[in-house]
Amino acid sequence: MNTVEVNTPGGRYPIHVAPGRLDRLGDSIPADATAIALITNPTVAAHYASRAIAALESTGKRVIRVELPDGEQYKDWQTLNLIFDALLQNRLDRKAVLVALGGGVIGDIVGFAAACYMRGVRFVQVPTTVLAQVDSSVGGKTAVNHPLGKNMIGAFYQPVAVEIDTDVLNTLPDREVSAGLAEVIKYGLIMDPAFFEWCEANADALRRRDPQAMAHAIVRSCELKAQVVSADERESGLRAILNFGHTFGHAIEAGLGYGQWLHGEAVGCGMIQAAELSARVLGLPADSVARVRSLVEAIGCPVAPPDLGTDRWIDLMQVDKKTEGGQLRFVLLPRIGEARSQAVPDADLRQVLAQAAQPATEQG
Amino acid sequence: MNTVEVNTPGGRYPIHVAPGRLDRLGDSIPADATAIALITNPTVAAHYASRAIAALESTGKRVIRVELPDGEQYKDWQTLNLIFDALLQNRLDRKAVLVALGGGVIGDIVGFAAACYMRGVRFVQVPTTVLAQVDSSVGGKTAVNHPLGKNMIGAFYQPVAVEIDTDVLNTLPDREVSAGLAEVIKYGLIMDPAFFEWCEANADALRRRDPQAMAHAIVRSCELKAQVVSADERESGLRAILNFGHTFGHAIEAGLGYGQWLHGEAVGCGMIQAAELSARVLGLPADSVARVRSLVEAIGCPVAPPDLGTDRWIDLMQVDKKTEGGQLRFVLLPRIGEARSQAVPDADLRQVLAQAAQPATEQG
Question: What ipTM was assigned to the predicted interfaces of this complex?
Answer without folding.
Answer: 0.88
